Amino acid sequence: MPTINDVAKAAGVSPSTVSYVLSGRRPISAETRARVQAAIAELGFHPHAGARALASSKTNVIALVAPLRVDVNVPVIMQFATAVVTAARSYNHDVLLLTKDEGTAGVERVAHSTMVDALILMDLERDDLRIPALRRLKQPSVLIGLPADHTGIACVDLDFGAAARAALTHLAGHGHRRIGLVGPSPAVYKRQTTYADRFLTGFLEASVDLGLQTVTHPCEPGAEGVRSCMADLDAELAGLTALVVHNEEALRPLLDLLHATGRRVPEDVSIVAICPRDVATAMPVNLTSIDIPAHDVGTLAVETVMRLLDGRRVEYTRLLEPSLVERDSCSEISASHR
Amino acid sequence: MPTINDVAKAAGVSPSTVSYVLSGRRPISAETRARVQAAIAELGFHPHAGARALASSKTNVIALVAPLRVDVNVPVIMQFATAVVTAARSYNHDVLLLTKDEGTAGVERVAHSTMVDALILMDLERDDLRIPALRRLKQPSVLIGLPADHTGIACVDLDFGAAARAALTHLAGHGHRRIGLVGPSPAVYKRQTTYADRFLTGFLEASVDLGLQTVTHPCEPGAEGVRSCMADLDAELAGLTALVVHNEEALRPLLDLLHATGRRVPEDVSIVAICPRDVATAMPVNLTSIDIPAHDVGTLAVETVMRLLDGRRVEYTRLLEPSLVERDSCSEISASHR
DNA sequence: TTGAAAGCGTTACCAG
DNA sequence: CTGGTAACGCTTTCAA
């Protein structure tokens, strides 16, 4: 493999000139630049990433810490990852993929060994143990999520509180007064994953503000989980006319259950789902939904990283406005249900 | 950040000794080792990855090139990625995540700039343009898939041909003689994704060998795609009693369709699915299935990479035996259908 | 069993 | 506008 010195010799210039042609960090005469670029092309020169990192203290790599369990939410995670990688590439950066399983040790390892310039973490918990560790790193971090104390660390996410409110407002606008929340799985609540908490809080607050009767319940995965969740909701609040579903996995079995028990959507039960757009439209009933804008959030996370690396100012809490798209799963409440 | 020299001073040894303590590449007296390790711990020393890469020509990073479209197969891809990252970590390597979208340029970029020691690629096409490029790299590659000409490049995958044969053999053993294949989407065939071709070829060959009447059809995503696929299958071969489904997305809508049209599973139609285990068991009917062993394949790919990096011999084509798990979607054909 | 020192390939500072 | 040359932090050969 040719080195920068080989290129310099071939072009009849000094290595530093080659470096400056590459980086554009100082003016180079058109003629010299041309000679250098010709030499680079001819020799097939590619700068050595390690040498660069050593000399410049920049790796042009960012870490992405993802929850790689074969758990819930797989498509959403994939969308985040895709957005992050794509956006990173547009800034000439690459992405090192870590699993959340490695915990604090993982982020410290890659940061301390100077493998990355910055970190993006997803699936944060309320009191995430990694946060104090992140504060000690010399590299900046951006979180996808909003843990309790994130002082000094940039956070990006959908505004799940506002999303819950938007869902209830929409249903209330259609006359619904008795509404159930099919929540994420108990495991998600147990981990205190921040989006679940924020959604629930927003849901409860909006219930009060809008004068609604609501009931909430987590929902185990699988048909059986959905059945028991619905049984609980029905038992705790008779005459439910609408459901808010914050659980991607549950959507399909829920629709099956409603169908099997003769409750039509939207005639008997209206539904607002919180899920990616394509999930909402892949159901037997086209679901009115609030999108989880994984692409936007991922892209924004990368943009925030880049600002941080450039030493520019960033907003430390950036919550994206939810947007509800009306489809076919909500109807005006019928007179008989009032 | 402390350097190896700081550690050396603190421990009263030379930098090379510290290096050897770290790498274990030469014997060190217990006493010296202890002093060095104490110094490392006290100073919180972590070797600089770039410096290491520069001096040793090893990055301890492998590239994973994944199809990050928000396309089909999302869960399977996720399982591969998880397995690869986990296995790589167990060999003290990290994973750089690339998208297939970058194509040849992407693999060349990371390889030429010495960001990685090896590459793992998934979602290979029959005549994949990247293969000639891979051959020119100094880093070894391992493919998850089996393109037409992979001379000199290690490939790992499920034996999809054998999987097709196993599915048909199972059904034939239950007396079925008229069998349809619900294939992947036309897009997958168009890309000539290797697993689709291999499955189809195996299916056709086994049909002949077993004396079966079969008919095959790709299947567009969505309920409509499934409907039209089934219509075609039924039209081309009357009296189908069994289906082989090589299309994860189609499973759910297919079961819905069969239910809606009054064809019971397995009483009227038997089904063998090719999909991850958890997908098979998440359906309304527990499906008899042939697992896509993403975890095993991903792990094996990493093991192969490590052997290659160690200069050990590897098998250049490693196709994992399919294993069919019997569940509730296949029955002996009833007399009326014979 | 240990040390000394020559690289590894860039960058960026100091000169001119 | 360009060149020379210390770093950057580690590994590894050569010597002892």
Automatic annotation (TrEMBL), chains A, B:
Gene3D superfamilies xref list: 3.40.50.2300, lambda repressor-like DNA-binding domains
Domain HTH lacI-type: 2-56
Domain HTH cro/C1-type span(s) in chain numbering: 3-32
Keywords noted in UniProt: DNA-binding, Transcription, Transcription regulation
CDD domains: HTH_LacI, PBP1_LacI_sugar_binding-like
InterPro entries assigned: Cro/C1-type_HTH, HTH_LacI, LacI/GalR-like_sensor, Lambda_DNA-bd_dom_sf, Peripla_BP_I
The keyword DNA-binding is assigned to this record: yes
Top-level division of the source organism's lineage: Bacteria
PANTHER family: LACI-RELATED TRANSCRIPTIONAL REPRESSOR (PTHR30146), LACTOSE OPERON REPRESSOR (PTHR30146:SF153)
Protein name: LacI family transcriptional regulator
Organism: Actinoplanes hulinensis
Taxonomic classification: Bacteria, Bacillati, Actinomycetota, Actinomycetes, Micromonosporales
